[in-house]
């Protein structure tokens, strides 16, 4: 009998980062992949399922407008309980720091099924930043039997917390596997991505972290407006996350500027196209911090702390937080000083070589033993 891996997919980054692992599992004799989607981010998920040729076996349909962390957590756990009653599973695979990752690990534990955690060991060591992601990742790690940190730094965090060495394998980040896969796919960019006149520069923005809702976001939006006013050659493209706490404020403060282009979240292939076309990015996204160095695009990180210090050390990332002075200072340097720009783009990507999924599946096979 083949060994059955159950993959829990909740939000956008989990779909992107587990798609290459699922592909690799499906191509491996002796393994079967069962895919559960929580039903979160349905509008964002549909394109990504299509891009990566995925059809979830179970859809928990948990999403409700303005859901709270309490309510969505309760529905995810309840939905997973039903799936575990129906499926025979040898290993649960979760990814990253989302609530679905933590609850997928918890559901595995409640069912006495071992858990593998992809993108394990990243830490800010600040319980509330990012919130609730820092604790989601820690809790998933506490429940996991196999840990796949992307870097040596992430591995060292796990070792420091007492995880046994034999349970850990450094793999690189699977987002690079996904990125290299997606870059090969044919694609016609959508009209949401603005045309640039000669000499114009595109700045791509994303922000959706819960700790930035409210006043911190207002400071960021003030800085963005000031940036396009100071630099007439800058066009800003801002795919706005559907979380209503983000959407409402963005529209009010940035909706009326001729060189600020607000749009719905872009499909993955469109977003990669926009990244390639951009001069630099301003973002609080984790995945973007990992992808951009491969495309040689600097990222000004709209957060006070990052769990991705390797990118800071390689120069590819710079922390600017939500302080308008810092944001404008760093953006101005990139737009006016070629040396500052070169310093952020010269080093290789510390997050992986595109082979993380193969390493993960090989280790899982060894862990589960031969098909019985
Ligand atoms: C979630 C993750 C976050 C991850 C992010 C990736 C948690 C707690 N948060 O944040 O770690 O970085 O996804 O994008 O796991 N909404 C929609 N449509 C969507 C998505 C969201 O309408 O496609 C709205 C809904 O009103 C929903 C709210 O946004 O109630 C919050 O969505 P939710 O999935 O709970 O959290 P995110 O902020 O998207
Ligand atoms: N992304 C996308 N469309 C967008 C914005 C982001 O496809 O409009 C991709 C991006 O390339 C990255 C992932 O979504 O791979 C990051 O997701 P998100 O920022 O939601 O989550 P995080 O990485 O912060 O957990």
Automatic annotation (TrEMBL):
UniProt domain UDP-N-acetylglucosamine 2-epimerase: residue ranges: 26-364
Q: Which SUPFAM superfamilies match?
A: UDP-Glycosyltransferase/glycogen phosphorylase
State a single Gene Ontology molecular function: UDP-N-acetylglucosamine 2-epimerase activity
Report the family membership.
Answer: Belongs to the UDP-N-acetylglucosamine 2-epimerase family.
According to its UniProt record, what is one Pfam family this protein matches? Epimerase_2
Instruction: Give the domain of life.
Output: Bacteria
Matching entries from InterPro entries are given as:
UDP_GlcNAc_Epimerase_2_dom, WecB-like
Swiss-Prot/TrEMBL keywords: Isomerase
What protein does this entry describe?
UDP-N-acetylglucosamine 2-epimerase (non-hydrolyzing)
Cite the EC number: 5.1.3.14
UniProt xrefs under CDD domains: GTB_UDP-GlcNAc_2-Epimerase (cd03786)
Organism whose genome encodes this protein? Candidatus Ozemobacter sibiricus
């Amino acid at each position: 009998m083949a060994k059955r891996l159950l993959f829990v997919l909740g939000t956008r980054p989990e779909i992107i980062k587990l798609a290459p692992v699922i592909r690799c599992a499906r191509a491996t004799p002796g393994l079967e992949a069962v895919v559960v989607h929580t039903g979160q981010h349905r509008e964002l998920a549909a394109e990504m399922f299509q891009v990566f040729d995925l059809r979830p076996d179970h859809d928990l349909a948990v999403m409700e407008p303005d859901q709270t962390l309490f309510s969505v957590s309760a529905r995810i756990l309840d939905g997973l309980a039903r799936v575990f009653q129906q499926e025979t599973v040898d290993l649960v695979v979760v990814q990253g720091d989302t609530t679905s990752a933590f609850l997928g690990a918890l559901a595995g534990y409640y069912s006495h099924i071992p858990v593998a955690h992809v993108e394990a060991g990243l830490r800010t060591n600040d319980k509330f930043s990012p919130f609730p992601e820092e604790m989601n990742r820690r809790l998933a790690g506490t429940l996991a039997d196999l840990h796949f940190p992307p870097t040596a730094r992430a591995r060292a965090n796990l070792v420091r917390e007492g995880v046994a060495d034999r349970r850990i394998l450094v793999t690189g980040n699977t987002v690079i596997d996904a990125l290299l896969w997606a870059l090969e796919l044919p694609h016609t960019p959508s009209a949401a991505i603005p045309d640039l006149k000669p000499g114009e520069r595109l700045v791509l923005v994303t922000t959706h972290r819960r700790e930035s809702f409210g006043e911190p976001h207002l400071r960021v939006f003030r800085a963005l407006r000031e940036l396009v006013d100071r630099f007439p050659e800058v066009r800003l493209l801002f795919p706005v996350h559907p979380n209503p706490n983000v959407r409402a404020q963005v529209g009010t403060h940035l909706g009326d500027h001729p060189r600020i282009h607000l749009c719905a979240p872009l499909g993955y292939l469109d977003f990669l196209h926009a990244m390639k076309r951009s001069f630099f990015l301003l973002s609080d996204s984790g995945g973007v911090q990992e992808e951009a160095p491969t495309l040689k695009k600097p990222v000004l990180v709209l957060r006070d702390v990052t769990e991705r210090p390797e990118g800071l050390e390689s120069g590819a990332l710079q922390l600017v937080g939500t302080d308008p002075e810092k944001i404008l200072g760093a953006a101005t340097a990139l737009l006016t000083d070629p040396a500052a720009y070169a310093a952020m783009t010269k080093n290789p990507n510390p997050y992986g070589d595109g082979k993380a999924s193969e390493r993960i599946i090989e280790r899982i096979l060894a862990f589960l033993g031969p098909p019985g």
